């Protein structure tokens, strides 16, 4: 029994002596592997530092600067437009497994301007930003009920949203038709209450005309206009200030269909197409020429490379093309 006990003690001693050594060797092995991996990571980071610099250089060469909103001598208030740049950090993370720049893997971000439309003093707006390839359709409604269903169908079939400016008394007398326009997803603006010549009206009269229209639109449609179109384009600076106090910016137009003169449909369409450019706003009413020519107008405006949107779409600083920068051979 004594011999067995001595053997057990010797075995335990050997085990206790060996464990620290095994543990130490394991730690040394782990540390050694970590050092090797660390050296590989450091080499990779050194390689990718060059990639990071190349992405930054590409951005510096190709980025598009934003355009600030401004008061133009001719066009008055013009909205700003976002610039476009490479998101360097995101692009680097996406491409860091390789060592070469791949422009198809670039991630882009829009860069806002420093001055926005809301920063400008109250001024009329005749157009969107001239760098934005978009056109807006303005439809002033105070009459012409018989042509509205056809116009709505054309807009729906063409997948185009317009901005309808409502005369307040028209909304009061035609709530169902006003609701059908709103239901189609079109933007609603204020066109005063009784089609007055606001250039000749007092401040109090102007306030009453605009506020009554906002009230009836809000009561009927549950929406509050942010854009105001003066009837017949007649206004003065007091008109602009009253609209601003009511939370609305004053909208005029770039291209006029002059549809109320009952021109030949083909001549009206031809005139509009000759006048549109980046940022144009096209004025029209529910008339026979518009009802007949709207589809052709939309098709040809799109064919010229413009998107169609509401006034809010056009005034937005958001870029509308795919996020990409010009690709050149000299990355």
How are the secondary structure elements laid out?
Layout: H1 2-62, E1 70-72, E2 76-78, E3 83-86, H2 88-95, E4 108-111, E5 134-141, H3 148-157, E6 163-166, H4 168-173, H5 175-183, E7 187-190, H6 203-221, E8 227-228, H7 237-245, E9 249-250, E10 255-256, H8 265-275, E11 281-284, H9 288-303, E12 307-309, H10 311-315
Parallel strand pairs: 5-6, 5-11, 5-12, 6-7, 8-9, 10-11
Antiparallel strand pairs: 1-2, 3-4
Helix pairs in contact: 1-2, 3-9, 6-7, 8-9
In short:
This protein is an alpha/beta fold. 47% of the residues lie in helices and 13% in strands. A hairpin with a 3-residue loop joins β1 and β2 (76-78).
Question: Can you describe what's shown?
Answer:
The chain has 331 residues and is of the alpha/beta class. It has ten helices and twelve strands. The protein folds into two domains: 70-117, no CATH class; 125-315, Alpha-Beta Barrel (TIM Barrel). It has helices spanning 2-62, 88-95, 148-157, 168-173, 175-183, 203-221, 237-245, 265-275, 288-303, 311-315; strands at residues 70-72, 76-78, 83-86, 108-111, 134-141, 163-166, 187-190, 227-228, 249-250, 255-256, 281-284, 307-309. The longest helix is centred in the first third of the chain and has 61 residues, at 2-62. The chain is globular. The N and C termini lie far apart (85 Å). The model is unreliable at 19-44 and 327-331 (pLDDT under 50).
């Amino acid at each position: 029994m004594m011999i067995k006990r001595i053997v057990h003690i010797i075995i335990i001693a050997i085990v206790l002596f060996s464990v620290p050594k095994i543990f130490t060797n394991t730690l040394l092995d782990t540390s050694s592997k970590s050092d090797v991996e660390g050296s590989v990571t450091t080499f990779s980071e050194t390689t990718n530092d060059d990639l990071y610099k190349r992405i930054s250089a590409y951005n510096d060469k190709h980025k598009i600067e934003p355009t600030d909103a401004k008061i133009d001598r001719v066009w008055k208030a013009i909205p700003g437009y976002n610039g476009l740049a490479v998101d360097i950090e995101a692009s680097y993370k996406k491409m860091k497994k390789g060592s070469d720049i791949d422009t198809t893997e670039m991630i882009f971000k829009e860069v806002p301007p420093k001055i926005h439309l809301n920063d400008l003093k109250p001024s009329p707006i005749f157009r969107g930003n001239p760098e934005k390839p978009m056109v807006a359709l303005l439809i002033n409604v105070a009459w012409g009920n018989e042509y509205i269903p056809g116009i709505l169908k054309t807009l729906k079939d063409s997948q185009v949203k317009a901005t309808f400016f409502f005369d307040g008394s028209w909304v009061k007398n035609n709530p169902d038709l006003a609701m059908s326009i709103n239901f189609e997803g079109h933007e609603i603006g204020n066109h005063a209450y009784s089609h007055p010549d606001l250039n000749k009206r007092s401040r109090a009269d102007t306030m009453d005309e605009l506020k009554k229209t906002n009230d009836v639109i809000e009561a009927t449609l549950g929406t509050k206009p942010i854009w105001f179109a003066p009837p017949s384009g007649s206004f003065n600076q007091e008109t602009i200030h009253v609209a601003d106090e009511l939370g609305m910016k004053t909208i005029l137009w770039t291209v006029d269909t002059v549809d109320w003169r009952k021109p030949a449909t083909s001549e009206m369409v031809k005139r509009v197409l000759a006048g549109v450019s980046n940022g144009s706003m096209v004025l029209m009413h529910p008339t026979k020429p518009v009802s007949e020519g709207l589809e052709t107008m939309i098709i040809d405006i799109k064919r010229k490379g413009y998107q169609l949107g509401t006034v809010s779409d056009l005034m937005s600083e958001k870029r509308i093309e795919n996020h990409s920068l010009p690709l050149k051979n000299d990355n």
